[in-house]
Design a protein that fits this description.
Blueprint lengths: L1 H30 L6 H5 L1 H4 L1 H7 L7 E5 L7 H8 L4 E6 L10 H16 L3 H4 L3 E6 L2 E4 L6 E7 L2 H6 L3 H11 E12 L2 E2 L5 E2 L7 H10 L3 E6 L29 H7 L4 E7 L4
Parallel strand pairs: 1-2, 1-5, 2-3, 5-6
Antiparallel strand pairs: 3-4, 6-10, 7-8, 9-10
Helix pairs in contact: 1-5
Length: 275
């Protein structure tokens, strides 16, 4: 009997080790995959996707919602990672504003349209589920409250500028299951005192972001310096948009901004409390 129990324990350990190794190897294959452009792969240097996924404890069997994925830089990693055993959801901009008089709304609709075209290859990305998230709420196809992970990258400053960050975080709290994880990556301002911070357009104070998430009901589990960039002085004429990949200053001091690289970013892991 003792030998059988011992054998079972050994088999369980081997299975766990095999599963972990398969996940790690699968992620490496995805990062090196032909579906990713060389330009996007070059950004791994600043965005550290493998470390981010490990920090947020995202597993291949998870159900994950990415909010406002933009052109899909993280999506082209996360969706294949979850394709076989999990489920990938994307909360995107409305597609109904292509003929709007609001140029920003038109732009965002075009972004979503192009994003859906990209993610339509089920052989690579699996069956992606979509929701429309705008004005701090789900406009259509609100996900069930079963998400293991909600992931937001470089988006909070837009919500804050529109005065809807708090409401948006509360809406996301509702669709995350108890014990689930909220992962936030955001351009980070410089703290200059206990009460103040300093930075250009697009940057946010880390304490302000944490306080907003706590107010929405989340618990801060851990912060990371994975995406810290000490070269980022945060004092550019066009704020964070002067840096790559946007390079809003055009050819003016382009080499300077390329040498700095992408922005200094906070990386935060929150948990939705049980019960």
């Amino acid at each position: 009997m003792a030998m059988r129990i011992g054998l079972r324990l050994v088999l369980v350990v081997i299975a766990l080790m095999s599963s972990t190794g398969t996940s790690a190897n699968g992620l490496t294959s995805i990062l090196e995959g032909a579906h990713r452009s060389e330009e996007n792969k070059a950004r791994d240097l600043y965005r550290h996707p493998k470390q981010v996924i490990e920090f947020l404890k995202i597993k291949p069997h998870h159900t994950l919602l990415e909010v406002w994925p933009g052109s899909g830089w993280y999506s082209e990693i996360l969706a294949p990672y979850l394709k076989s055993r999990g489920q990938y959801y994307a909360a995107i901009f409305s597609l109904d504003n292509l003929n709007s008089d609001d140029k920003q709304a038109v732009f965002w609709s075009k972004v979503s349209q192009k994003y859906q075209e990209k993610m339509s290859d089920e052989a690579i990305y699996g069956d992606v589920s979509y929701s429309i998230f705008d004005n701090a709420k789900f406009i259509s196809s609100k996900p069930e409250p079963k998400m293991d992970v909600i992931f937001i990258a470089r988006t909070l400053h837009v919500w804050d500028e529109r005065g809807e960050m708090q409401d948006a975080l509360k809406a996301l709290f509702e669709v995350l299951k108890p014990g689930g994880t909220l992962g936030i990556i955001q351009h980070r301002a410089d703290t200059i005192s206990e009460f103040a911070s300093r930075a250009g357009e697009g940057y946010m104070d880390q304490r302000y972001v944490i306080d907003a998430a706590l107010k929405a009901g989340f618990i801060l589990d851990k912060s990371s310096e994975i995406n810290h960039n000490p070269k980022d002085t945060k004092d550019y004429p066009k704020g964070v948009y002067a840096l790559p990949p946007t390079l809003a200053m055009g050819s003016l001091d382009k080499e300077k901004y390329l040498a700095i690289g992408e922005s200094d970013r906070m990386t935060l892991r929150f948990i939705k409390p049980n019960g």
